[in-house]
């Protein structure tokens, strides 16, 4: 087994263990981290002019945002859930635009929005769950 293969195997096991051991609050944090990771990869791929891979990473980010959106509980969340629903819609539309236009600027905008949402989520105590 090569060193890269061993490291990749370790990463997979480490990620799986982190997911299994995570509470719901941490899982949402991990999803936001996943969106940000994919957007940073997409930005790098724009710089390297790898359109196919860029598109793949943006689509993965869109999928995660869609999952976050579908998990909103409008009854329990009230206005907060409604506002997040609108924000997630906007983020996904902007990601489609970024993909279509190959736009680093739009990705920067979305990264800023996701960081802001994540920051709010990070501020919620684990005790709330």
Give the key terms:
Four Helix Bundle (Hemerythrin (Met), subunit A); 5 helices; mainly alpha; 129 residues; 85% helix
Walk me through the topology.
Layout: H1 3-21, H2 24-47, H3 51-70, H4 74-101, H5 104-122
Describe this structure in words.
The chain has helices at 3-21, 24-47, 51-70, 74-101, 104-122. It is mainly α. The protein has a single domain (32-124), classed as Four Helix Bundle (Hemerythrin (Met), subunit A) (Up-down Bundle), CATH 1.20.120.
Uncertain runs: 1-14
Indicate the proportion of strand residues: under 5%
Domains, number: 1
The CA-CA distance between the termini, in Å, is 42 Å
Compute the average pLDDT. Answer: 86
Q: How large, in whole angstroms, is the Cα Rg?
A: 16 Å
In terms of structural class, how would the helical and strand content be classed? mainly alpha
User: Any idea what the shape is?
Assistant: globular
Query: Could you say what the CATH architecture is?
Result: Up-down Bundle
Report the top-level CATH class: Mainly Alpha
Q: How is the CATH topology named?
A: Four Helix Bundle (Hemerythrin (Met), subunit A)
The tally of strands reads 0
Largest sheet: none
Q: Fraction of residues in helices?
A: over 70%
DSSP helical segment count: 5
Could you give the order of the helices and strands? HHHHH
Q: Can you identify the CATH superfamily?
A: Flagellar protein FliS
């Amino acid at each position: 087994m090569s060193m890269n293969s061993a490291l990749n195997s370790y990463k997979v096991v480490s990620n799986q263990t982190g997911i299994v051991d995570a509470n719901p609050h941490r899982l949402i944090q991990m999803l936001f981290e996943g969106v940000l990771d994919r957007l940073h990869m997409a930005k790098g791929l724009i710089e390297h002019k790898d359109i196919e891979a860029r598109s793949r990473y943006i689509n993965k980010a869109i999928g995660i945002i869609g999952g976050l959106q579908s998990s909103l509980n409008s009854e329990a969340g009230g206005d907060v859930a409604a506002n997040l629903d609108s924000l997630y819609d906007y983020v996904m539309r902007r990601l489609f635009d970024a993909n279509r236009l190959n736009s680093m600027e739009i990705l920067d905008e979305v990264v800023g929005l996701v960081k802001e949402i994540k920051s709010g989520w990070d501020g919620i105590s684990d005790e709330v769950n």
